[in-house]
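Final report, results section. Input specification for complex C-07:
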Amino acid sequence: MSIDSIILLTQRLVAIGIIIQCLESLLILKQYKAGGIFDWEILRTARKFTLNAPTRNLFDFIFSYNNYIVIIAIQITTSLLLFLNLSAIHPVIAPSICLLCLILNNIRHTVGTEGSDQMTVIVVFSLVVIYATSILTVKYIAVAFIASQLFLSYVIAGIAKLISEPWRSGKAFTELNQSESFGHKKLFSFLNRNQRTAKHLSRLIISMEIILPFLMFLGTPYVYLFLLSALIFHFSVAVTMKLNCFLWAFSSAMPSAYFISAHFFS
Amino acid sequence: MPSILHKETIVIGFIVGVYALWIVCTFIVQFKGTKAATIINNLDPLGVVPVWTFFAPHPLTHDFQILYRYKLSDGSETSWRIIHQPFSGIDFIINPHKRYRKAILDHCSIFCSTILTTTTDPNDIKLSLPYIAILYHISSNVSNPLADEVQFTIATSYNTDKNHIGKVVFVSNYHKVNSNEY
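Structure output:
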């Protein structure tokens, strides 16, 4: 695959995730009104630059209920442009506006964000960098950055679990599943009954998170094993932990990992 | 030609610099609670430096539930009601209530850790963002027209029994509904 095909696949995958996030926000618009959990009147007190003049007035204007709906609409439009690979005037415009909306969303949600939001920002920022210049080396650097963040995300998550006794023993994995927010009732019952299996599964997750990303450095076909495992992992996380947008955000970084592996390590 | 090459070098150098800084910051913020991580977090109001430790070292093992009750104008109290945190059934495709549930979770987690670690006057927690946000959310959505005051509780719960409330972590005072007198 050429680097341009990789970039196209990346922007399509990330666009799907952003559109889903936007639709989710539209479905709970009530929560952005006065009295909602995301009422700006309250959340703006979380940061100095949104609480104090002169920037306060700017953010109050941007995040008024009606204007926030406009931001979501712009985000959907720019994501559709990215998905369809249509450029408005210049190819950098759509990802730039999309990035601005994502950052505004990060400011707007002082609570309620998740790791997929951060990966989405990383990918869209890199798309801006790619389209802002016509330099081939910059494309390689941006793709390498996305791949390196994907690599770091798994390895760091694995090491953080490895140094945790509850994770090594399987206790953390079992107990995580007893929460309604991120758990799965049937999986919890199974793991609670089979604690040795829970321990082995937990250690398997830790091992996979730490070891599999290094397959990137062995090139093809080994990188396929890493990417396939990661895809299955994110699909199962979407089903059991209800973290649907992780699938799209992290999948959008996978073409870059494939490219770097195939191009530089095969 | 040389000037174009020079310009390209500057652009590439700048981009490499930005990305290198981003990677270094990513490394540092993983060490939560350290001075360096705190500094970077404070310098990152846009939330672009990722924390990749996902559910480790100590994952969430319970949910937080917010319960509330009213004191009516005749002085009587209603029974406790729970703030419903819905699921859609197709959450693995589209999960509209995810952010709402996460916001409740974040508010409660921050609030509970504040209670446990605060060394100042306990009344100060009433001025904390999570307290005000939860109270404002409840008092703005009063379902009983006779309600005069509202009180809320934060409790843990487990998915093993949907209606099972684990431990009551905090009980607020009564506050006037639709009032700014927090």
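The radius of gyration of chain A is 20 Å. Chain A is about 75% helix and 0% strand. This concludes the modelling results for the funded period.
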